[in-house]
Automatic annotation (TrEMBL):
GO molecular function: catalytic activity
Keywords: Coiled coil
InterPro entries with a match to the protein in the record: Cytidine_deaminase-like, DUF1893_TM1506-like, Hyp_TM1506
Name of the protein: DUF1893 domain-containing protein
Signal sequence range: none
Record-linked Gene3D superfamilies: Hypothetical protein TM1506
Coiled-coil regions listed: 151-178
Species for this entry: Caproicibacterium amylolyticum
Pfam family of the protein (one): TM1506
């Protein structure tokens, strides 16, 4: 089922109460409301990912966006509304190089992957995007587990986000048996 960005947001966005974090300032020996809440946001999306039936969770501007779609489909949906990923913390069950390029295109700030491929890790680290993971694997396997994921394979030699998006769209069209637009 395909839905518009507005419908996607209505279906998948959970508004969360604003959270105020306190930070310990050792120099002044006191807690303050100032500081970088990056780690707290990542923990919230990790918790959302593991506690729900979701494949991805993204937090940005006090909102958590989730999806239960597989593969790169949720990222392609989120890219239709650039404000979802720009500056966000995200947690995903599987991040291969294809997903890494889409996260970069969206401008994500930091990532967590339950399963991360080595090519994705190298790409994200080369672009200074912090990424943590549960398990690191040489590559993401296809759905039948007998080879490399066609999405990851299609972007192995790609050098930028625009080229990656084009290759991914071509691969999706080929897999669906549709002509490339």
């Amino acid at each position: 089922m395909h839905c518009s960005t507005a419908a996607l947001c209505r279906q998948t966005v959970k508004q969360v109460a604003p959270v105020r974090y306190l930070w310990y300032n050792a120099k002044q020996n006191l807690f303050t409301g100032k500081g970088n809440a990056v780690d707290k946001h990542l923990e919230r999306v990790k918790d959302t990912l593991t506690q729900g039936e979701y494949t991805i969770a993204v937090e940005n501007n006090g909102k958590i966006y989730t999806s239960d779609k597989n593969g790169i489909a949720p990222l392609l949906d989120f890219l239709k509304n650039p404000e979802i990923l720009r500056g966000a913390a995200a947690a995903d069950k599987v991040i291969g190089k294809a997903a890494a390029y889409l996260f970069l295109k969206g401008g994500v700030r930091e990532l967590y992957a339950q399963l991360l491929s080595e090519p994705a890790k190298e790409l994200l680290e080369s672009r200074n995007v912090p990424v943590t993971y549960g398990q690191l694997v040489p590559y993401i396997k296809n759905r039948t587990q007998d080879g490399m994921c066609p999405m990851e394979q299609s972007v192995l030699e790609v050098q930028n986000e625009e080229e990656a998006l084009q290759k991914l769209q071509e691969t999706l069209a080929r897999l669906k048996g549709k002509p490339v637009q």
